[in-house]
Structures are given as C-alpha cells and as structure tokens.
Design goal:
Pfam families: AMP-binding, AMP-binding_C. InterPro entries: AMP-bd_C, AMP-bd_C_sf, AMP-dep_synth/lig_dom, ANL_N_sf. Keywords: Ligase. GO terms for molecular function: medium-chain fatty acid-CoA ligase activity. Belongs to the ATP-dependent AMP-binding enzyme family. The protein contains 9 helices and 19 strands. The protein is α/β, with parallel strands linked by helices and about 350 residues long. The protein has 2 domains: about 240 residues, 3-Layer(aba) Sandwich (Rossmann fold); about 100 residues, ANL, C-terminal domain (GMP Synthetase, Chain A, domain 3). It has a 12-stranded mixed β-sheet with strand order 1-5-4-6-7-8-9-10-14-13-12-11, with helices on both faces. A 3-stranded mixed β-sheet has the order 17-18-19, sandwiched between helices. Strands 2-3 form a two-stranded antiparallel sheet. A hairpin with a 3-residue loop joins strand 17 and strand 18. The longest helix has 15 residues. The protein is globular and about 65 Å long.
C-alpha cells in the first residue's frame, strides 16, 4: 500500500486498515495515543504518548538522517507497536511517500519496480539477515537508501560483518516505547563502524548507581526515563551498551552479564562464518543459585565448536560463566515485534 502526502488510499487488507486508521487519527489532530511496550522483558504494558512527543521524535529523525519532503520510506515494522507507528508519524510529519507492507522476513521481495527509489527504511535484525541471503535482489534497493535503521533487538557480530556489503549507511538504534523510538544510534558498516552509541541532538543521558542509563529529551517531555540497561558512559553523548541489569545471572555469588557471554560466542561463530540464533539465560540451580544455560535454535553444535566457545569464555570471564546446560529448540518463539521471546522459550524447554 502506497501513502503519499495528502492522499490516503482505501485499505485492501486488514493490516492496511490498521495503518490507515492510525493515519486518519493523526491527520484529525488526535492529541494522545495509547501504545503497548513490546513485552520482550516483561508483560506488555500500555503507555500514553502525546502528539507533541511523537512530533519531536519524528522531526529529530528527519534532521538526523537528512530526510526531505517527497523522499520514499518503507514501512515494514508492526504498526501495533512504537517502531511501526513512528515510521507512519515520520511519513506524515515529514511529507514522505510511504510504502506500507505487513511485516515479513524479506519485505523487499514484495516491492514494486520503482522500489530502488526508497530513501529510508527500518528493519529488525532477522529481516536484515534474511534480505542479505538474497543479495542480488536486495542490494540494489538497499544501496540507494539515505539511511537504514536496524532495531528492536541486538545486532550480533555475524550480522554486523555481513552488513559490510551494503554501501548505504546502516545504523543500530537504541530506544523504547517510553522514549518514543530511538534516541541514540551507532554506525554498523563502513569505515565509521563503531561499538559506541551516540545520543541524538538534544538528548541528555546519564546513569544511576547501577550504571543503568537514564534519558531526558523532547520526546520524553523532558522527563527522565530510567532504564534497566547497563552501560559504560563514555562521555555526555556516547555510551556502550553492556546488557540489562535484570538479566544478570548470579552463579555461586559471581555476577555474570549474559550479553557479554553472548558476545564472546558471537566472535567464535563469526570466525567460522556461522549464522545461528542462540541466547544465554540463568536457570535455577540448587548449589549455585543460578546456572548459565545456552539455548540454541534448530541444531546442536559440534563438540569442537563448543570447546572453542568454552575456551574463549573461560579466558575472558572465568569458569562460572561457562554454560552448564545446553538446550536445543527447533524454532525460537518470537514476540509480535520480532524479538526472541526468551521467557516463553525457557518456560517451555527447561
């Protein structure tokens, strides 16, 4: 479905109808909107956002990425949640021409012949991974964009390495429903690739006594939003994302950040050129309190690969961080926003 400035088409599908209903509410001047958090770290909860907050966020995105009236945007994230909704708001506020596609693993496959004119798009990591498996079809479209955003979940090292074939700038985004989408970005490809997030113009960041990030910006109505994301604050505008405070595993009194273990595993897999979904989680243990568990999707790993992983983890983090249990799952369950639903998987398979 194509939405041009001042022209709302008749919806052809149920999903189109949801997108058009939001656009009509926005154009009518509605002042507040109720959205739900993604539910990836807890039960989804309703949040009321003001039009003022959403406009501030949309305009900051336009300024950051140099978007101009008439630029084409691809909207292929779920419009029931903040990422998809804010793509619609950006289109409406910045006078972009929007192509709206119901979320699918490779949205570019569904585009029309003039798709190479698209200037701006946002994807989740799984979509990027799938599109890069068909480079002849997708790269001509991706390479002509002004900016490509990847958010909703962490970008692992294997995917980041594969993104180097894209000429257009690709950015990992940091944000949440409470901050009205992204408030910081980091470049994933090219010579300016970095592990450090940069806060967008006008966004103030700091940390609490747990080293968890807090945020204040126009998009938060200049109120402080306190997160559970543990960061290394480089300076007043830059930070490294280390993991979540509420995911820390306490094994025998040793606190282990699972995201750090996952990063070590990612480096080993990248050296082998392996793309495989996995995650680290803390399971109850009578002796240790919690034990480190490795959840794998689809296939078991060879003893040699597991030994290489254990060696790398032991060298960097010590023996307590080694996975004590390995669980293989046929297909990872996902949330409606495309994130791995860790709690559901752990509940079903442990």
């Amino acid at each position: 479905m194509r939405i041009a400035p001042g022209n709302l088409p008749e919806p052809q599908t149920e999903y189109d109808a949801k997108a058009i209903a939001f656009c009509r509410a926005w154009i009518s001047g509605q002042s507040t909107f109720a959205l739900y958090t993604s539910g990836s770290t807890g039960a989804p909860k309703p949040i009321s956002l003001s039009r003022r907050q959403m406009v501030a966020s949309a305009r900051l995105t336009g300024q950051t990425f140099g978007l101009k009236p008439g630029d084409q945007a691809l909207v292929c994230l779920n419009v029931d949640y903040i990422a998809g909704v804010m793509m619609l708001v950006r289109g409406l506020e910045l006078d972009l021409v929007m192509t709206v596609i119901e979320p699918t693993s490779n949205p570019i496959r569904l585009l029309s012949a003039d798709s190479e004119l698209i200037a701006f798009a946002a994807f989740v990591p799984l979509q990027m991974q799938t599109m890069l498996e068909e480079p002849a079809e997708t790269l001509p479209v991706l390479n002509k964009m002004k900016a490509i955003l990847v958010g909703g979940a962490a970008v692992d090292r294997t995917l980041a390495d594969r993104l180097q074939v894209i000429d257009a700038p690709v950015f990992s985004t940091y944000g949440m429903t409470e901050t009205v989408s992204h408030i910081a970005i980091r470049r994933l490809n090219g010579p300016h690739r970095t592990e450090v997030f940069t806060a967008l113009t006008g966004v103030e960041i700091g940390t609490d006594d747990r080293n968890c990030l807090n945020i204040k910006a126009a998009a938060t109505d200049f109120e402080i939003v306190q997160t559970n994301d543990v960061v290394e604050l480089v300076d007043s505008r830059h930070f490294r994302l280390l993991g979540r405070a509420d995911s820390i595993i306490n094994s025998g009194g040793v606190k282990i950040q699972p995201e750090r273990v996952e990063e070590i595993i990612a480096r080993v897999l990248a050296n082998e050129g392996i793309a495989n979904r996995y995650f680290i989680y803390g399971l109850p243990d009578e002796r240790l309190g919690q034990q480190v568990a490795l959840f794998l999707e689809k296939q078991e790993w060879s003893e040699n690969r597991l030994e290489n992983i254990k060696t790398a983890i032991r060298e960097e983090m010590g023996p307590y961080a080694l996975p004590k249990k390995i669980v293989t799952v046929p297909v990872f369950k996902e949330t409606s926003t495309g994130k791995i639903d860790k709690k559901e998987i752990v509940s079903a398979y442990s």
